[in-house]
Amino acid sequence: MTKSNYKLTKEDFTQINRRSLLTFQLGWNYERMQGSGYLYTILPQLRKIYGDDTPELKEIMKTHTQFFNTSNFFNTIITGIDLAIEEKEGIASKETVSGMKAGLMGPFAAIGDSIFAALIPTIFGALAANMAINGNPAGIFIWIVAQIAVMVFRWKQLQFAYKEGISLVTTMQSRLTALTDAATLLGVFMVGALVATMVNVKVSWAPSIGDVTMNMQNNIDMILPKLLPAAIVGGVYWLLGKKNMTSTRAIFIVLIICVVLSALGVISK
Questions:
Q1: Can you tell me the distance from the alpha carbon of 245 to that of 116, in angstroms, rounded to the nearest whole number?
Q2: Alpha carbon separation from 95 to 41, 63, 136, 180, 184 (Å, rounded)
Q3: Domain ranges of the chain
Q4: Kind plus residue range of the DSSP H or E element containing 202
Q5: Low-confidence ranges of the chain (pLDDT < 50)
Q6: Which one, of 258, 262, 240, lies nearest residue 250 by Cα?
């Protein structure tokens, strides 16, 4: 088990926050979403923890480029806990960190986007716009102050999460396995919820027997609601296990099949 004696400094926190605010979304893509941005945000610190050009650094870099997607307003909470654990446990924390990221990114995405991407802009934006319409220039300053407050919140949460992460791995060492299992299970639940809510495919084919038309989608729902979305996700998962298959190729295969079946009237949204 490789551990590091390196401890993050104020300069490290400043660098992480700066990268998080300015570059976190620049590497966004449909395959891994914020994965590359997450790695770029903490890469200098990973090099200090694991050393340059070491097997441990390469292994943890591969771990951090996996799928990741959460609210921009809460991502450094996950980053702070992650770095605290890796700083303490080294490469042995890889599974714990992966499970923690998978389990927390979903809840933080929902909370962060609801509050900071919807509620706050609605309240302060409406207030500022109403004042601007009435000729009051103070409206723009209200909006600016609100955005500055949000950025200060994002800046401060990293060090707070890091300190809590240190507490977690020093006082709750025996519970790290339970944390990993719980976070992984939560991630599985989140994936299941996304399958049921985000994959919207229905069977539109309705064969007729005499004067009776069979509603195939209704019959499938009687067996198991959302069976078709689950089958599609299972098929994609099986497809990704094949040699030389990538996520991009799988996406194009799904698109082509869906377009053909939709044109034939077999499926619909």
A1: 38
A2: 20, 9, 54, 7, 9
A3: 10-194, 200-268
A4: strand 202-203
A5: 1
A6: 240
